């Protein structure tokens, strides 16, 4: 009964945010991140476009079959889609599944044709099929195209250099939380390749329960492009005892970690990933991750995407307070200034939480501050992200 009450209250809050003028994207992000995510596919059809700033009144026409003619990616896409049987609901009639597979091929080819700078990779279809099953082919085409030019952009380069750079964040995150696990994995020389399929499919390829997949998509769509690597880190940390009890060699540790458990405590892991992102933002980890050519990565361009998707409704009192704080901080120099921005205890934590919508653990009083601050705080505070 308590769950039903919470669910009804959350549904009401989501529709209130959708019906506000302008739409309260900040609240929608909080709803997508907080316990239970967006709850139903019907709601996802309405909210996912808002999280990605997709205009549902101006959707592209459905792609035609001519896309398949002389398309360099067609054969590989066809092979991958034919192997994707387990990504469709069990018990679905063959003719219905085959129809969806044809739509899946067309969506992928359509996005690639409209964006020649993007390169197909094996695993991309695992992401696209999730959108197809939730929102249908036409809306999925628009959402996937936006996603491909933002969150997934690094995976769609001609080389895997940027993907490797993102994987390089995994060990520094683990090191900040549990140096013992980090050192054990370093000694085993296991690397990070075990998490590659997690990252490039947003866990769609490795999780068997579709409910868990879409719950994670709610979370990732509302967050920074690097959030999947933080979630990968918390999975490893959740299994820290298993890791430390494993034989300290590459084969044993890789085998253990590549077999992802299906009964993970998803809500607590999502909450922990959000906390770690706030505690150890990418800007603090970039040097350790040895990331190269940061100007080309989705993580570095997220500021523009975030600002474009968040409604700008400044609160004048809060704005004045922040201006005064910024003027004070201008008097600081070098490392002292950096330290004050990144480690200022409670107030700054609220602002960081506001930027990402990570307000799950905040009290009611803080929510009021977060709600009004989110609309404009990114202008000042997103500098903490790479």
Automatic annotation (TrEMBL):
<feature type="domain" description="Rab-GAP TBC">
    <location>
        <begin position="38"/>
        <end position="224"/>
    </location>
</feature>
<dbReference type="GO" id="GO:0006888">
    <property type="term" value="P:endoplasmic reticulum to Golgi vesicle-mediated transport"/>
</dbReference>
<dbReference type="Pfam" id="PF00566">
    <property type="entry name" value="RabGAP-TBC"/>
</dbReference>
<keyword id="KW-0812">Transmembrane</keyword>
<dbReference type="GO" id="GO:0007030">
    <property type="term" value="P:Golgi organization"/>
</dbReference>
<feature type="transmembrane region" description="Helical">
    <location>
        <begin position="350"/>
        <end position="370"/>
    </location>
</feature>
<keyword id="KW-0343">GTPase activation</keyword>
<dbReference type="InterPro" id="IPR000195">
    <property type="entry name" value="Rab-GAP-TBC_dom"/>
</dbReference>
<dbReference type="InterPro" id="IPR045913">
    <property type="entry name" value="TBC20/Gyp8-like"/>
</dbReference>
<dbReference type="GO" id="GO:0005789">
    <property type="term" value="C:endoplasmic reticulum membrane"/>
</dbReference>
<dbReference type="GO" id="GO:0016050">
    <property type="term" value="P:vesicle organization"/>
</dbReference>
<dbReference type="GO" id="GO:0005096">
    <property type="term" value="F:GTPase activator activity"/>
</dbReference>
<feature type="transmembrane region" description="Helical">
    <location>
        <begin position="190"/>
        <end position="207"/>
    </location>
</feature>
<keyword id="KW-0472">Membrane</keyword>
<feature type="transmembrane region" description="Helical">
    <location>
        <begin position="219"/>
        <end position="237"/>
    </location>
</feature>
<keyword id="KW-1133">Transmembrane helix</keyword>
<dbReference type="InterPro" id="IPR035969">
    <property type="entry name" value="Rab-GAP_TBC_sf"/>
</dbReference>
<protein>
    <recommendedName>
        <fullName>TBC1 domain family member 20</fullName>
    </recommendedName>
</protein>
């Amino acid at each position: 009964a308590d769950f039903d009450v919470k669910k009804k209250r959350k549904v009401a809050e989501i529709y209130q945010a959708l019906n506000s003028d302008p739409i309260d994207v900040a609240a929608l992000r909080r709803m997508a991140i907080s316990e239970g995510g967006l709850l139903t596919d019907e709601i996802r059809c309405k909210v996912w476009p808002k999280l990605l700033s997709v205009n549902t009144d101006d959707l592209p026409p459905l792609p035609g079959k001519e896309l398949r003619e002389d398309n360099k990616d067609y054969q590989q896409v066809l092979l991958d889609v034919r192997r994707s049987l387990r990504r469709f609901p069990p018990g679905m009639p063959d003719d219905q599944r085959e129809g969806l597979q044809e739509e899946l091929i067309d969506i992928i080819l359509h996005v690639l044709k409209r964006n020649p700078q993007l390169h197909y990779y094996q695993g991309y279809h695992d992401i696209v099929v999730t959108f197809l099953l939730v929102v249908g082919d036409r809306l999925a085409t628009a959402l996937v195209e936006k996603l491909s030019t933002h969150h997934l952009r690094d995976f769609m380069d001609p080389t895997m250099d940027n993907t490797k750079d993102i994987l390089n964040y995994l060990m520094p995150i683990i090191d900040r939380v549990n140096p013992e696990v980090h050192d054990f994995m370093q000694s085993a020389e296991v690397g990070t390749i075990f998490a590659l399929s997690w990252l490039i499919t947003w866990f769609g390829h490795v999780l068997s329960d579709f409910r868990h997949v879409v719950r994670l998509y709610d979370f990732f769509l509302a967050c920074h492009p690097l959030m999947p690597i933080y979630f990968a880190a918390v999975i490893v940390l959740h299994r820290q005892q298993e890791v430390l009890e494993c034989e300290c060699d590459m084969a044993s540790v890789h085998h253990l970690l590549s077999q992802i458990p299906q009964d993970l405590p998803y809500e607590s892991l999502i909450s922990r990933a959000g906390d770690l992102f706030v505690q150890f933002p990418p800007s603090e980890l970039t040097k350790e991750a040895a990331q190269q050519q940061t100007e080309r990565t989705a993580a570095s361009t997220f500021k523009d995407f975030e600002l474009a998707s968040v409604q700008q409704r400044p609160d004048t009192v809060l704005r004045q307070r922040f201006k005064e704080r910024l003027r004070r901080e201008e008097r600081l120099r070098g490392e002292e200034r950096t330290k004050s921005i990144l480690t200022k205890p409670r107030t700054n934590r609220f602002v960081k939480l506001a930027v990402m919508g990570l307000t799950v653990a905040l009290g009611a009083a803080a929510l009021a501050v977060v709600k009004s601050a989110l609309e404009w705080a990114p202008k000042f505070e997103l500098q903490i992200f790479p």
